[in-house]
């Protein structure tokens, strides 16, 4: 349901953002441009969606009967908050079509040039968020389920990018598509490059393989845009930063870590469509 700028502007005090990813749902609660809370949850089914809407009606962020999404504050929200959604999973987006205060963000809403129709809305919003924080040109490295690199030039025109399987997806494929390789989780530190056991060999191949590819893309990007910031986001961003700090400290020192980058983009589009004159979203840009 579309709203006028006046109606949208009246909601600026309290609203929710939802980024529907391939593996999880990413949520944020805003008061105006201030991000009060970020959390993550599994994909929902229709029954879970109804429980969540009832929780919002009670002024709660989450329903206690649903799978625990992580630490949430106990501060109450205003009932029936506006919901701004960006989705790469049509089936999950369809669950929210009946929510009466729904606002769906599409590529047509974004102030970017040169977009192609199948560009993921998450990649495009990350560019908007990164440019809001750092200006144009900018390169975004999103280490999510799929690891993506997306860049835009000084005029805000899409230069292009690349997509490859992310850390978790590569680990999962080795476990599921081979007969003898075990499931592996990453340790808190980088694995040894030259491993002497199978789990560490898998971790080494995934981390150093992905990391080397990202380094190469960043180096090439800086050949074209030497002063461009590089913004790192996504669930695998912390591991990627560890790799860069150890193997390419000159890149790591110039990289900007923003785990909640897509919410910066969503907030910018909401402000734009609401006719709000605000200083921009406020986040803590650290892992």
TrEMBL record:
Homodimer. It comes from the Bacteria. It is an enzyme of class 2 (transferase). Its cofactor is K(+); NH4(+). ATP binds at residues 19-26, 145. The active site is at 122 (proton acceptor). GO terms for molecular function: pantothenate kinase activity. Catalyzes the phosphorylation of pantothenate (Pan), the first step in CoA biosynthesis. Its EC number is 2.7.1.33. Substrate binds at residues 116, 120-123, 198. This is Type III pantothenate kinase. Gene3D superfamilies: 3.30.420.40. It catalyses: (R)-pantothenate + ATP = (R)-4'-phosphopantothenate + ADP + H(+). Keywords: ATP-binding, Coenzyme A biosynthesis, Cytoplasm, Kinase, Metal-binding, Nucleotide-binding, Potassium, Transferase. SUPFAM superfamilies: Actin-like ATPase domain. InterPro entries: ATPase_NBD, Type_III_PanK. It is found in: Cytoplasm. Pathway: Cofactor biosynthesis; coenzyme A biosynthesis; CoA from (R)-pantothenate: step 1/5. Belongs to the type III pantothenate kinase family. A monovalent cation. Ammonium or potassium. CDD domains: ASKHA_NBD_PanK-III.
């Amino acid at each position: 349901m579309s709203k006028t700028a006046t109606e949208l502007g009246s909601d600026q005090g309290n609203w929710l953002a939802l980024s529907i990813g391939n593996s999880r749902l990413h949520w944020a609660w805003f008061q105006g441009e201030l991000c009060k809370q970020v959390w993550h949850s599994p994909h929902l089914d229709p029954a879970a969606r109804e429980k969540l809407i009832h929780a919002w009606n009670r002024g709660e962020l989450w329903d206690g009967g649903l799978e625990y999404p992580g630490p949430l504050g106990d501060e109450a929200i205003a009932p029936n908050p506006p919901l701004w959604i960006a989705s790469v999973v049509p089936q999950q987006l369809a669950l929210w079509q009946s929510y009466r205060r729904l606002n769906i963000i599409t590529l047509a809403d974004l102030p970017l040039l040169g977009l192609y129709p199948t560009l993921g809305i998450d990649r495009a919003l990350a560019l908007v968020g990164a440019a809001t924080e750092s200006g144009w040109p900018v390169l975004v490295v999103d280490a999510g389920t799929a690891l993506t690199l997306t860049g835009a030039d000084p005029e805000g025109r899409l230069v292009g990018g690349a997509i490859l399987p992310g850390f978790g997806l590569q680990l999962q494929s080795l476990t599921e598509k081979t007969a003898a390789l075990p499931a592996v989780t990453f340790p808190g530190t980088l694995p040894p490059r030259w491993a002497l056991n199978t789990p560490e060999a898998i971790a080494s191949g995934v981390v150093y393989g992905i990391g080397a590819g990202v380094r190469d893309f960043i180096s090439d990007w800086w050949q074209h845009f030497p002063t461009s910031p590089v913004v790192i986001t996504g669930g695998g961003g912390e591991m990627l930063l560890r790799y860069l700090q150890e193997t390419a400290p000159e890149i790591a020192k110039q990289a900007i870590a923003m785990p909640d980058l897509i919410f910066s983009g969503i907030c910018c589009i909401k402000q734009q469509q609401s006719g709000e004159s605000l200083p921009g979203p406020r986040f803590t840009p650290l892992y």
